């Protein structure tokens, strides 16, 4: 009988350990990060700045900027472009008026997102490289079903339940005009890649570098959230196809929650291309697409994420199993004692 007791107890312990392992793996599997190639991080532009696609101080004129068009509630001060003020239900944008006739480029954006409220704020802003200079719309202040590249700087998690990542979150979408941006799910289903970056409400100056090498079909986003002049990788993807001739823009929207969304500077660099002799005009008709980015994934249910409630339930079940194991152990021990006593009598 003692062997049977040991066996039951060992099985219960093994089962509990197995359960813990399964829970641990399923809650941490999304946190695996690819470190990337260290030698590839020297992002600094090897080309030269193109003033016509850049927005740098002084912002002459107060209300207008050469080569840029202001829309909605955006406004220009001496020191920054404010896409939205820290007020509810505002939409603003700024669009460059010249099509980008550069195949390999890099944009450095110095920006600031901050507001009065330290707990509730939103919604973030977006960078665009799109076929049209969008009218104001519901996707961070621009139209849905865009054609081209978008980079979202999302400060508010709209999705019910937890994400497998924290906000603020930077993510990219490549769209040929057919994919919807699902704001309620923070675009999770249509994102090409992304990263968490704590750019909101921080004292340090915050920067992002967006590099697109058309000649290598490569899109890289890096950020400097500590103003240390060092880029940290957000993501690096090959197989990204974008045409020349699209427009650069930034937009933002506030709803019930708000923030100041400000651009301090936008610097556009033309990079030395692998195909320096190429005429950018021959790439005007490329359809935006990205390897590994499915057109649109199933929206029927959220990805399984473990909420606090799930974890509490798991703990509860674990404790119940331990109590059952102890009760069984006690029961078998009691039976053994009974039998030993019987043997003594007969
Ligand atoms: Ca959001």
From TrEMBL:
Q: Which GO terms describe its cellular component?
A: COPII-coated ER to Golgi transport vesicle; endoplasmic reticulum membrane; endoplasmic reticulum-Golgi intermediate compartment; Golgi membrane
Q: Which UniProt keywords apply?
A: Disulfide bond, Glycoprotein, Golgi apparatus, Lectin, Membrane, Metal-binding, Signal, Transmembrane, Transmembrane helix
Residue intervals of the L-type lectin-like domain: 47-271
Pfam families per UniProt: Lectin_leg-like (PF03388)
Where is it located? Endomembrane system; Golgi apparatus membrane
As for membrane topology, the entry says: Single-pass type I membrane protein; Single-pass membrane protein
Q: List membrane-spanning regions.
A: 312-334
Q: Which GO terms describe its biological process?
A: endoplasmic reticulum to Golgi vesicle-mediated transport
Gene Ontology molecular functions: D-mannose binding; metal ion binding
Signal sequence coordinates? 1-27
Protein name as annotated: L-type lectin-like domain-containing protein
Q: Which organism is it from?
A: Clytia hemisphaerica
């Amino acid at each position: 009988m003692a062997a049977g007791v040991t066996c039951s107890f060992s099985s219960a312990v093994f089962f509990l350990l197995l359960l813990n392992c399964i829970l641990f793996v399923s809650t941490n599997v999304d946190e695996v990060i690819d470190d990337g190639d260290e030698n590839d991080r020297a992002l600094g532009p090897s080309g030269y700045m193109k003033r016509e696609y850049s927005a740098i101080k002084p912002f002459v004129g107060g209300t207008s900027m050469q080569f840029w068009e202001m829309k909605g509630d955006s406004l220009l001060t001496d020191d920054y472009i404010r896409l939205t003020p820290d007020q509810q239900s505002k939409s603003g944008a700024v669009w460059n008026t010249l099509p980008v006739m550069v195949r390999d480029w890099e944009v450095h954006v110095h920006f600031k997102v901050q507001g009065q409220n330290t707990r509730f704020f939103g919604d973030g802003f977006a960078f665009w490289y799109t076929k049209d200079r969008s009218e104001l719309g519901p996707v961070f202040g621009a139209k849905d079903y865009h054609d081209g590249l978008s980079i979202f700087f999302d400060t508010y998690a709209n999705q019910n339940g937890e994400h497998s990542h924290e906000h603020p979150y930077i993510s990219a979408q490549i769209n040929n005009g057919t994919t919807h941006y699902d704001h309620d799910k923070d675009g999770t289903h249509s994102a090409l890649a992304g990263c968490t970056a704590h750019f909101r409400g921080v004292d340090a100056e915050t920067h992002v570098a967006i590099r697109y090498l058309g000649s290598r079909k490569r899109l890289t986003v890096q950020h400097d959230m500590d103003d240390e002049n060092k880029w940290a990788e957000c993501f690096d993807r090959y197989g990204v196809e974008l045409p020349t001739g699209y427009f650069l823009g930034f937009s933002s929207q506030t709803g019930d929650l708000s923030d100041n969304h400000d651009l301090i500077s936008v610097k556009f660099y033309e990079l030395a291309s692998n195909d320096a002799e190429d005429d950018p005009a021959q790439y005007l008709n490329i359809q935006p697409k990205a390897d590994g980015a499915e057109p649109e994934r199933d929206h029927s249910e959220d990805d399984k994420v473990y909420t606090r409630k799930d974890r509490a339930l798991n703990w509860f079940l674990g404790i119940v199993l331990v109590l059952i194991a102890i009760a069984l152990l006690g029961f078998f021990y009691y039976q053994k004692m009974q039998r030993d006593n019987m043997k003594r009598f007969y």
